[in-house]
Every structure is written in structure tokens, then in C-alpha cells.
């Protein structure tokens, strides 16, 4: 058992704790077999479109690359909705341009 503070740990160790500390972590989400299958299908589709995008890029076809990456983005959004997750993106750092 873990505690949030040193005092709670000492209380727990010496037996003066009255209740375990509250947890702030939500319980894990249980997915149905149908949801797991849907997630697996979306991941497979995303991987296929990702590979197609980079094959197009290698061939110099930027239009197909952009379209495939847009499809990957849509599939990832579907995965986020299905799993209840939100994206975390690093904030872009400002770019500096050299002065002439």
C-alpha cells in the first residue's frame, strides 16, 4: 500500500491510520471484445495508410502522402474517441530566423 505523504506512511506503519489514503487515479476502463476488435482494426488501417503515405513520399507523390496522412489522422481520432483518451502534444518551440 502506498501513501501520499510521509505522515500517512508513518501512521500506516505504526497502526494509527484510520483509513487508506484516497486514490486520485480513476479505475481502469474495461473494454468489450467488440471494442478490442474495433481498436485492432483501426490500428491495422492506420498502419496500412501510414505505410502507403511513406511509400508515396518516397516516390515523390506529395498529394497522396498528404491524403494518406489525413486518413491516419482520422483513424487516430476514432481511436481516441473509442478509448476515451486525449492527445498530448508538445508545445512547439518558437523558431528563430537568422538575421541577414
Beta fraction: under 5%
What is the terminal separation in angstroms? 61 Å
- Report the principal-axis shape: elongated
Q: Main β-sheet: number of strands, strand sense, barrel status?
A: none
- Report helical residue fraction: 55-70%
Contiguous low-pLDDT stretches (5 residues minimum) are none
What letter string, H or E per element, gives the SSE order? HHH
What is the residue-mean pLDDT, rounded to a whole number?
Answer: 80
Per DSSP, the total helix count is 3
Cα-atom radius of gyration? 24 Å
Q: Helices and strands: which structural class?
A: mainly alpha
Q: In total, how many beta strands?
A: 0
Q: What do these coordinates show?
A:
The chain is elongated and about 70 Å long. The protein has helices spanning 6-14, 33-58, 62-83. By secondary structure, it is mainly alpha-helical. It is 57% helix and 0% strand.
Q: How do the helices and strands line up, and which of them pair or pack?
A:
Layout: H1 6-14, H2 33-58, H3 62-83
Give a short synopsis of this structure.
The protein has 100 residues and is mainly α. It is built from three helices and no strands.
Supply the key terms:
100 residues; 3 helices; 57% helix; elongated
Amino acid at each position: 500500500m502506498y501513501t501520499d505523504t510521509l505522515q500517512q506512511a508513518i501512521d500506516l506503519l505504526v497502526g494509527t491510520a484510520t483509513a487508506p489514503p484516497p486514490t486520485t487515479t480513476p479505475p481502469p476502463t474495461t473494454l468489450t471484445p467488440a471494442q478490442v476488435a474495433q481498436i485492432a482494426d483501426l490500428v491495422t488501417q492506420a498502419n496500412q495508410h501510414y505505410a502507403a503515405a511513406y511509400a508515396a513520399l518516397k516516390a515523390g507523390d506529395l498529394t497522396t502522402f498528404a491524403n494518406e496522412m489525413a486518413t491516419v489522422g482520422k483513424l487516430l481520432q476514432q481511436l481516441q474517441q473509442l478509448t476515451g483518451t486525449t492527445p498530448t502534444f508538445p508545445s512547439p518551440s518558437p523558431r528563430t530566423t537568422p538575421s541577414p
